[in-house]
Amino acid sequence: MIFCDIWPDVVHQLRNNRKSVLWNSSGGACGYGDLYSQGYGTNTAALSTALFNGGLSCGACFQVRCSGDPKWCLRGNPFVTVTVTNFCPPNNALSANAGGWCNPPLHHFDMAQPAFQQIAVNKGGIIPVQYRRIPCNKKGGIHFTVNGHSFFNLILITNVGGAGDVHAVSVKGSRTGWQPMSRNWGQNWQSNGNLCGQSLSFMVTTSDGRTSASFGVASAGWKFGQTFIGEQF
To answer: What rounded mean pLDDT belongs to the chain?
Structure first.
């Protein structure tokens, strides 16, 4: 896969701007909550509107490297692998070259500071980069956290390997057939059926069309707030 240059001229104009690349590592627009406990750590990034895809890019993995700026790029132009865990909102009150770097149609990665420091000098602040999409390499199975109440099941899906970004989910109770779920926000998927007292199975489809089925991952005695581990891609 070939690296693509992303807005080199605009980003070069901003390289001395001290806008922080560090953002809170908990919560976020993907709904992952505490990124440490979920296994994402600090190699994470928030994406601008053009890349975030309304939240469907949550969980995708990218290699990013500093490009064409010897003052700030680390020697050898190493890359860092980051997982998408948040959204970098636009600021339409500012122009693209004066603080509005997450405004459409710009492609921008707002990286956690430990990730940024693997590719550039922290003082650089805003740097030109190249990036490419790569498969996610996650340890263990997909995690399903069950929230909600009897007729509102909200499933947070994390630790997804392969393409990483979930685009479709179905749930099956031990007394039902497969039921498609709708995306509520981030990577929280909802079903309005009463599945209490039934063992649960999940089918997860990522953006590349691959599907992983996890049968009976939650026993009939499951409780809201619990997390269950299923199959991985």
So the answer is: 88
